[in-house]
Each structure stands twice: as structure tokens, then as C-alpha cells.
Amino acid sequence: MRVDIITLFPELFVPFVQAGVTRRAYESGQLAVKTWNPRDYAEGNYKRVDDRPFGGGPGMVMLAQPLAACLAAVRAESGLDRQQAPLVYFSPVGEVLNQSLVQRSGQTAGVVLLCGRYEGIDQRFIDAHVDAHISLGDFVLSGGEIAAMAWLDALARLQPGVLHDEQSHLQDSFTPALSGLLDCPHFTRPEVWQDQSVPEALLSGHHAQIAAWRRQQSLTLSADKRPDLLEKARAAGQLSRADEQLLAQKPKA
Ligand SMILES: C[S@@+](CC[C@H](N)C(=O)[O-])C[C@H]1O[C@@H](n2cnc3c(N)ncnc32)[C@H](O)[C@@H]1O
Q1: Cα–Cα distances in Å, from 16 out to 113, 146, 149, 181, 210?
Q2: Can you state the angle between helices 227-235 and 207-225, rounded to 10 degrees?
Q3: Are 173 and 182 contacting, i.e. CB atoms less than 8 angstroms apart?
Q4: Which of its termini does the chain have fewer beta carbons within 10 Å around, N or C?
């Protein structure tokens, strides 16, 4: 997938694409990332990319024209139109990012990610060019770059060959294999740390017992921390009778 990112701070993405296991997705070209700075497409000696808001008030607003010129350059180079590479604007207006949205929005040949700054972007550019809005949550960031990185990172780890263990992401929280529930807790060496032992089931070497322990933990953790996920799984018919029995055994808080 080709990923073009329109940002006033392209330097933020340089270390991001070089770190951790996800760098393989970028190095291999599975996610071919290119950043574009709207300042390079601004007019005049000062290369202005923002101006004061009509109607007054604090802050600045990103100008439509440099963004339109920048987007035209992206489309000319990639050869991908809106259907093939939709323009996604990261903004509090958007659908809140979750695993299913990462998967849904990562299926086109390309995507153009638009990172706002200041008070935001001239609405006329948004109305003319934006195909989807994605929010990171109900809080305000200084810019869309962190939201774009969150989306990109979540997508990168789904690419074949990126994680050491191919099965790894299939067992993560929110995935269908876990009925959309939370992942279970994990433990590593030593077996005893500060008087706390690793749960016996995990040391048993007995696959069925380990799987049952993990399923129970996933169910009870979700019941405690994210009852909404449990209800969703139940409504979708993804909880078995054995699951319900495991939940019924859970000590009441
Ligand atoms: C300071 S914010 C603008 C906030 C805007 N005036 C408002 O109150 O909704 C600058 C940019 O950060 C990005 N941003 C802020 N919060 C975000 C969020 N929750 N999710 C995704 N992007 C966000 C958007 O691209 C936005 O244009």
C-alpha cells in the first residue's frame, strides 16, 4: 500500500519509520511511506501555510491553497485517484480509531493521510477533498501526526512478515480469534519474582489447560475492564456455553 502523508512536520516521521519491528513494513515497501510538506506548495516569498480565522478568535487556520496544490502533486506522482487512495483527515470530528477501522481503512491501493495543525484546516478544503475523518479519541492533540502514526503503526503490524511470529497479531486484543475481547496477561522468566509466582497452568506444558486458562483470563479481564466488549461478543453469539460457565465461576468484585 502506498501511504502519502501531508504534514507540516515531516521530520517527525523519520525516526518513526526506522524503529521497532514495524520498520520491516516500511523497508520492504509493504507500506511505501512518503511525506509531503504543504509549505513546499505555498505561494509568495514567505511561503505562508496559515492565516487568521475569519470572524476573529485565537489561533491560525491552515490555508486551503497550499494543501490543494500539495494534494495535486501527490495524486500526480502516485497516479491514484480518490477511490484508489482516499484522503483521510485526522481530526476530533472523525470516527474513533479502533482495530476494525484500521483493517477496513487499510485495504485500498493507497491512502493520503492529512495532518492538521493550529486551529485546523479551512473547511472548504475539507469539504472538497476529504473522504474520511479519523479521531484518536475525545481529546485534543496539537496536530494530526500522532494520530496518523497510531493508524500507521496499527496497520504495519498486520502486514505479513512484520511480526516475528505470524500468529502474534491474530491473538491480540480486539481480534476475531479472541471474540473481540481483551488479550490475557503475559508472564516471562523468572518463575517467581518478588514472591509472586507465574500461574500454574502456564507452567503445566499442557496445551488445552493453557488455552483454557488464557480464555478464562480474557473473559474475566474483559468483564472487569471492558464489559462493553463482552456484551458485544455475547450479542454476536461469540461466547460459548463453556465461556459463560467460566464467567459464572468468576468471583464477584
Ligand atoms: C489543535 S488541533 C485543532 C483542534 C480544533 N480546533 C478542535 O477543537 O476540534 C490541530 C489538529 O490536530 C489534529 N487533532 C487534534 N485532536 C485530534 C484527535 N483527537 N484525533 C485526531 N486528530 C486530532 C487535527 O488534525 C487538528 O486539525
Answers
A1: 15, 10, 8, 29, 36
A2: 110
A3: yes
A4: C
Residue 11 neighbours by CB distance under 10 Å: 10
Tens digits of residue pLDDT in 137-196: 999 999 999 999 999 999 999 999 899 887 778 889 999 999 999 999 999 999 999 999
Confidence label for 118 from pLDDT (cuts 50, 70 and 90): very high
The rounded percent of the chain whose pLDDT value lies above 90 is: 91
Q: Are 182 and 221 in contact (CB under 8 A)?
A: yes
CATH 3.40.630.30 fits 172-248, yes or no: no
Residues of the chain with CATH 3.40.1280.10: 2-156
Where are the extended beta strands (E) located within the chain?
Answer: 2-6, 32-36, 50-51, 61-62, 87-96, 110-115, 132-135, 192-193, 196-197
- Residue of 62, 67, 90, 151 with the most ligand 1 atoms within 8 Å of its CB, for mutation: 90
To the query of whether residue 119 is one of the catalytic residues in this protein, the response is yes
Q: What residues contact 115, with CB distance under 8 A and at least 6 apart? A: 5, 6, 7, 8, 9, 90, 143, 144, 145, 147, 148
Is 95 known to be catalytic? Answer: no
Query: Ligand 1 centre from 165 Cα, in Å?
Result: 35
In short, whether 116's Cβ falls inside 6 Å of ligand 1 is: yes
If you compute the radius of gyration of the chain from its CA atoms, what whole number of angstroms results?
23
Specify the CATH number of the domain 2-156. Answer: 3.40.1280.10
Residue pair 59/51 in contact (Cβ under 8 Å)? The answer is no
Tell me, yes or no, if 228 is annotated catalytic. no
